[in-house]
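Good morning,

Attaching, inline, the backbone tokens for the sequence recovery test we're adding to the shared suite. The designed sequence is right after.
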């Protein structure tokens, strides 16, 4: 039966607040992030609870110019919001080199071509969530973070059940002290708030999720309107 991941997160945040008040130190959080608009509300929500570092690992994005544009927009957003005191402290931003082969290997779309025409929320997307979250989890474990989560659930097109199932499973697959922070960031008007912040800061909002297939499907649907 599907869980209410927003409520699970509320309970975690309440316990974290109590612990921080007792010991005077915020826990660290590695936040996997896909772009500036999706990060905006998540950072606003979580920055008082955590010492946040952002992990931009998204080799699913096509083409490379789009990958670079989303990364650059995230960097600019963090610098601009730092000046406007949007956060208590500007998050560190960690990113990897662009390697689209990671996406094709992880999703195995070349072996299973039927996945190329799936709409969002299908098996291609589940594999795409998994390999990016796994990489972030491994980084969090190797670098001593207390918590990790991802911005992905803020999108109304993303499957929060699949995302949170992956988050829970990673700890079983790769034992470490890193805790998964449950999330369904679109809830409690989170998605709407991300639109407001994007407008306020003039953020670039992309018209497709990221991979070449979402670009092709998006173009097809726009052409048939
Ligand atoms: S539509 Fe988005 S989540 Fe799904 S495979 Fe493409 S980039 Fe990944």
């Amino acid at each position: 039966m599907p869980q209410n991941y927003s409520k699970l997160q509320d309970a975690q945040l309440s316990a974290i607040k109590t612990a921080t008040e007792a010991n005077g130190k915020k826990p660290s959080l590695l936040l996997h992030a896909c772009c500036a608009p999706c990060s905006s509300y998540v950072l606003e929500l979580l920055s008082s609870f955590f010492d946040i570092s952002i992990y931009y690992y998204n080799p699913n994005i096509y083409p490379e110019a789009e990958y670079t544009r989303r990364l650059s927009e995230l960097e600019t957003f963090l610098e601009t919001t730092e000046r406007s005191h949007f956060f208590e402290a500007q998050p560190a931003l960690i990113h990897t080199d662009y390697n689209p082969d990671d996406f094709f290997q992880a999703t195995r779309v070349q072996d299973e071509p039927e996945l190329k025409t799936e709409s969002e929320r299908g098996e291609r997307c589940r594999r795409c969530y998994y390999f990016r979250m796994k990489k972030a989890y491994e980084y969090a474990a190797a670098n001593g973070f207390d918590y990790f989560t991802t911005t992905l659930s803020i999108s109304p097109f993303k499957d929060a059940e699949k995302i949170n199932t992956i988050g829970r499973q990673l700890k079983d697959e790769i034992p470490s002290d890193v805790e998964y922070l449950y999330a369904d960031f679109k809830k409690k008007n989170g998605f709407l708030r991300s639109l407001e912040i994007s407008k306020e800061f003039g953020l670039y909002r992309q018209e497709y999720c990221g991979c070449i297939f979402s670009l092709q499907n998006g173009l097809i649907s726009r052409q048939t309107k």
